[in-house]
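Need residues for this backbone.
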């Protein structure tokens, strides 16, 4: 058995278009003259709403307001984001043999709505969301302390350089997915332990590794 931790945006949830749209809407509301493009997300070292706002040239005094408004728009969306192809089946299969959790800079409320939409609530043992204090690395360590015994494997699955760095800081294995917000080159250069290109490849990795 292993502890498998997923990032949310860009790994399970296809939120790219939502993030770009909401980022632009909030910039417009706050009077920030920036045209939001995909590179604003893909070049971030740390994937969070706060760093996204800074990338969009939001004044530091308005960053908290930018984050608040973006999260409100995510929560107010009529339906949660789509799950990437094949991931629902992978999550269900992995949950029968491993402990699964989510470590995210999104809110637990938004993640729970997404899991309910995809009937995955019973597959995820814990959500470490934005409202919980601590860095992503600290939350990974918290999950490890909560769910694993000495010597048991822990994996962090992410789509961003910051996910890989957090895994290294927490001394766990990192798996980068190529379908998320950041480029494969950036993920490879960040030193991901493994890279996968599809849901099927992710499942096959765990079937072979554990």
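Answer:
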């Amino acid at each position: 058995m292993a502890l498998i931790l997923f990032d949310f945006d860009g790994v399970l949830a296809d939120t790219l278009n939502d993030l770009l749209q909401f980022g632009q809407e909030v910039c417009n509301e706050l009077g920030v003259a920036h045209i939001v493009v995909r590179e604003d997300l893909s070049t971030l070292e740390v994937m969070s709403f706060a760093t996204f706002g800074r990338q969009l040239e939001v004044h530091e005094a308005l960053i908290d307001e930018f984050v608040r408004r973006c999260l409100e728009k995510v929560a107010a969306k009529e339906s949660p984001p789509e799950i990437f192809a094949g991931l629902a089946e992978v999550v269900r299969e992995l949950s029968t043999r491993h402990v699964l959790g989510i470590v995210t800079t999104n809110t637990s409320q938004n993640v729970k709505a997404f899991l309910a939409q995809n009937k995955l609530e019973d597959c995820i043992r814990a959500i470490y969301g934005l409202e919980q204090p601590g860095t992503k690395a600290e939350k990974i360590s918290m999950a490890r302390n909560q769910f694993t015994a000495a010597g048991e494997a822990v994996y962090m699955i992410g789509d961003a350089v910051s996910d890989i760095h957090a895994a290294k800081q927490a001394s766990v294995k990192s798996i980068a997915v190529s379908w998320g917000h950041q480029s494969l080159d950036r993920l490879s250069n960040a030193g991901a332990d493994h890279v996968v290109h599809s849901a099927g490849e992710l499942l096959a990795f765990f079937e072979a590794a554990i």
